[in-house]
Structure formats: C-alpha cells, structure tokens
Amino acid sequence: MATIQDVAKKAGVSVATVSRVLNKNQKVTQKSALKVERAIRELDYHPNFLARDLRKAESNRILVLLQTISNPFYATIVRGIEDVARRHGYSIMLCNTDSDLEREKEYLTLLYKKMVQGAIFLDTEMSTEQLNELAENNSLVLCCEYRKGVNVPHVMIDNYRAAKTIVEHLIGFGHRKIGLICGDRHLESTMLRYNGYVDALKEHGIAMEDNFIFQSSESSFQMGQRAVETLLYKSDPTAIFSMSDIMAIGALKALHKKGIRVPDEMAVAGFDGIEYSAVSVPGLTTIKQPNYEMGCAAMELLIQKMHNETIANEELIFEYELLIRESTLKNV
Amino acid sequence: MATIQDVAKKAGVSVATVSRVLNKNQKVTQKSALKVERAIRELDYHPNFLARDLRKAESNRILVLLQTISNPFYATIVRGIEDVARRHGYSIMLCNTDSDLEREKEYLTLLYKKMVQGAIFLDTEMSTEQLNELAENNSLVLCCEYRKGVNVPHVMIDNYRAAKTIVEHLIGFGHRKIGLICGDRHLESTMLRYNGYVDALKEHGIAMEDNFIFQSSESSFQMGQRAVETLLYKSDPTAIFSMSDIMAIGALKALHKKGIRVPDEMAVAGFDGIEYSAVSVPGLTTIKQPNYEMGCAAMELLIQKMHNETIANEELIFEYELLIRESTLKNV
DNA sequence: TTGAAAGCGCTAACAA
DNA sequence: TTGTTAGCGCTTTCAA
Questions:
Q1: Which domains does chain B possess?
Q2: Which one, of A63, A79, A188, lies nearest residue A114 by Cα?
C-alpha cells in the first residue's frame, strides 16, 4: 500500500508538496503538480484517511440514529440526509438502536472516540437532561422527534395540527365513534397527535372514551392487527385513526380477515405517508410528512452546527399534506 | 478533550501502562490498573479511535453496500449482519448505492482509505473482473446476489429451484397461462429465477411466450402496477409470478383497481418473503428467504476473511420456504 | 513555491 | 511489571 512518502519519492518532491496537491488549497507549480499526479496514478495511491482525520482532528463522518431501518418511514428521511451529506463531503453511519438506550449510548461513544463529528437522531431513548448534556460538547440535530426543553436544533411537522386535521376529516364524514391506535407515549410526537385527536373530538362535542383507545409502544403490522381485535371487542367504532401507517395497514388486514368492509363499515386513517399507503387495498388516507425534505434540512442544520455557524432558526416546522384515499371515502 | 497523556500523568504512570489497561491484554498490577481506571473516570477519557486505528492499521468497521434501505428485503439482512458485527466488535457503514456504479466505487474507496476493513455487497453494479480485482486486496463477501466466476465467498438460496417450486405451485392449481414479472436481468438471481420459471413450464409441457413476460430493472410498487397493465394488454394470464414481493404487491393493487379478483380470477405469487407479504390483501404466496440468517452468515464469512482464516466453504446455500397464502389459493 | 520537521494520539518493541 | 521511544501517514508551520 503506497503512502504519501512513496509518492513524494517517486515524484521527486517533498511530502508537503504532495499533500498540497492532494488538498488543492495551496500554491504548487503546475510542473510539480503534474509530477505528483503522475506518481499518484502510477502507484495507485489513496490517502489514508485515518491519518488525515487524526491530523486534522475531523472525520467528515456523521452518525444517524434510528430505531430500525425496517421502518419505511425512516428510509426516505435517511435518503435526504445522505444526499445533503454527500454533497458536502460527509459520509454517514446508520445505526439501528432497536430503541435500546444502552445500544444508543454505545453508538454515541463514536462522538467521543472522534469517529464521527455529529449525530442526527430520528428518535432517542435518552432523557431531556442526557440530550442537553451531550449537546454541550457535540453537534446534534433531532429529526421528526423533538421534546420540549431539549436545547438542540430540530426539524418536524406540526403533529398536533396534523392529527387534528385528519380526525376532523373523519368527523366530516359523520363519524362520531372514532377509535385511536396510539403510539409510544414516550415520544412527544405521540402526545401531540393524541392531543390533536382529543381536541378534534372535543371541539365537535364528542365525548372521549378510553374504550376507543388502543395503546402500543411498538409500531408494527402485528400491533395494528391486534389493535382491531381489541378495539372491536371493547367498543364499536365506525372509524379508526392510527398514529402510524404501519399499524393502519395491519388494521386493514385484520378488518379484511373479519369481513368488515373498509370504508363502508369502517373508515381507517393513518399517519406518515409511507409509500405502502398508496398501494394498500384499499388505499390509505393519511398525513404525508415531507420526509425527504426534512432529512435534507436536518443535515443542513447539522453542518451549520458542526461549522459553528449561528443557526437562524433552531426549530424548522414543515408542512404536511392530507392524502385522501379510499380507506375513508364512504360511497355515499 | 483528555488524551492518553493526560491520563498517564494523572495516574502517575506511563502512557504504555494506560494503553495496557485500556486493551486488557497484558500484565498490569492491580494497583496500577486501579489508578489508571480512576484517572480515566475522573477525566472522562475516551480513546481517540482515529489514532488507535491508524496505529493498529485496522478499523473494526465494515461497509455494507445495498441499492437502497427503502427495500424491506434488505432490512432484515442488515439486521443479521449488524448483530454478528456487534458481537465481534465491528461497526457497520450502510451505504445506498442507488444502483449507481460511480456511487458504489466512491464508497469502495473507503477500503483503500483504510476507513473500513471489508465489505458486504447485497448487490453490485461492478463487473465480474472488477469484483475479482477488488477481492485481491480486500475482504469481500456477497450476500444473496452472486455471479458465476466471481471469486468471493457468498451466501444465497437456490434461486433456480425456488422459482421452479413456486411456478409449479401455480401449475398445480391448473394454471397454464402464467405471466412473469421479471427483475433486473443484470442480476444473476434474476436469470436463475427466470430459468426456474422456464423449466417449470417446459417440464409441464407449457409453451413459453414472450407476451407473458414483463421486464423491469427497477423493483417498485409502481412497476408492479405497470406490469399488470402491460401483461393484461398483451396476453391473458390466469396467474402471475413476480420475482419480487414489492412488484407483486403493486400487481395486487392494480388488479384490485381493475376489479379483477385475486385469486379467483387471477392468482399472484411473489418472491422474497418480506413482512408486507403477510399483511397485503389478500395475503401473498411467496418464497421466504431466510434473510436474517443469511445476513449473519455473510458477516461471519467476512470476519473469517478479514482474519485470514481459511474458509471451509466459500458458497453457503440456505433453504427457502414456500409460503402459501390466499393470493394463489383458489376456492375450488 | 518548496522542504524540513513537528506532532495529531495511540500501540508495541525493547530495555530496564 | 513498567517506562521510553519510535512510528503509524498525514497536515501544517516555519524557514528558506
């Protein structure tokens, strides 16, 4: 494996000159440059980035923490993060935390170990205090999942308003018995959506009943299916609002198995706007979050943070979209 | 940021002793060890891994190349890779290549740059020659996507036999006009599945017709939908075999839109066994690949390779499973 | 514009 | 068992 020394020798210049050619930031005569470039080609030389990063005390690498890449909601966000990262010469390390605090912390040691320069959280198990402490010495950004009191730049939609919007959409079709498939209550987004649901009901004079709520901290097809079993057992909704598309799709499946027609006998609405919501049978009404754009914005915030630039707005709120599909469109 | 020097000073020992404590591989008196550990705690010291990796000429990091994490088929494989990697002290860098050769090569420079010690390909755009050349100086493993003539350890199922199995399943239900949604023909797995389809027909005395084949190099819901449009336009199949679940699910959607009942008017079979296939409406008959186990095996192979151990078997063939669900079960 | 040399933080060979 | 020291491959300061 050729080193910068080998290149210098072969080109008949000093290592400093080779380094200058490599980094294209200082004056080098064209003649030297050509000699160096030729030597690089002939030796098939590649700089050792461990050495470079050590010397420059930077890594151009960032950490992206998410619960699991299996969740299609994250895939598009990551795509956005990655595109911006690449454009700025950063590469990303994607890490599944499995919602395990220990695992999350293990990955975060990469910050101290200088393997990465910053981190984007798509979700986190850490407490507000832990996050704030970590943020003191490190560049962090939260994407889609913010918690009040956390002093970290973040990107998100107005979860409260979005949930209210979609529940009002259901109410607009005459539904007054609306079941809720509720997500992990440790997540602020869940609580905001919950409040949106509650307030929509309240403002339309509908009493809220616990029987109409199914709670699951894990968002999976299975839980969506179980939600339907439970909700139908303990109540008699005519519509269901699920806080994630994944669970909504599980619900559609369970309803189909039971022979309950959607939307005629039961309307179903989701949240997130994953790709699959467009091809489920029936198509799923949902709130589309602008994942890609949010991912891009998160990475841009992180770059500013890592460069110690002042961030004009630490809270970026994106617009969502209500996608109306067959799952709520009753044939009147 | 504390360094090993600071710890040595604080503990009143040499940096070598600190290093020994850190790496727990050499004799250190308990007394020294305690002093060092205390200093580490007090200074909140974390070793700089850039320095360590440079010095040891190793990184304990590997590259995982895939087309896109959006593809749920990959998610489970990655989980397997990651679990084994973690167990052995490796971390992984997940990279979306977008099936772009340039992008793939860019990531692969991380091997030369010494940022990673090995790579697992879930797919690749490189030629056989390019792969073989890269394999000369680097530790590589292919997972699920192997090409004849490539001199690299690999893990896969018997794609030929699996495709034949599922097509015979369709034939068993009396289908003789079986449409094919064919994947990217640059992939060996596609060609093997194609041969399985062809031979199944042949052995049952069914003539193969090009009209019954839809070709797409991109596996997406959209393409699955378009496949149905096209196949129904130019032929009259009673069953469709899709080489990926993703496209099969798109096909289910298109059939539903057209009011064609599955499986009564059209049977549909997929391939891969992604989670969605269990909750689509109707449930999708498919070939389940043991993704998680294959991911684990791929990582284990890579570790052996990186440790220069001799690999007993460079080709690991895993068993698949035919999952029979509603999409092919005609109500006789 | 160039080169010599220091040093990033660590590990490991060698000597004590 | 411990300490001294060279050196991993690079960038950058300083002097020429």
A1: 4-47 (1.10.260.40), 58-156+291-318 (3.40.50.2300), 159-289 (3.40.50.2300)
A2: A63
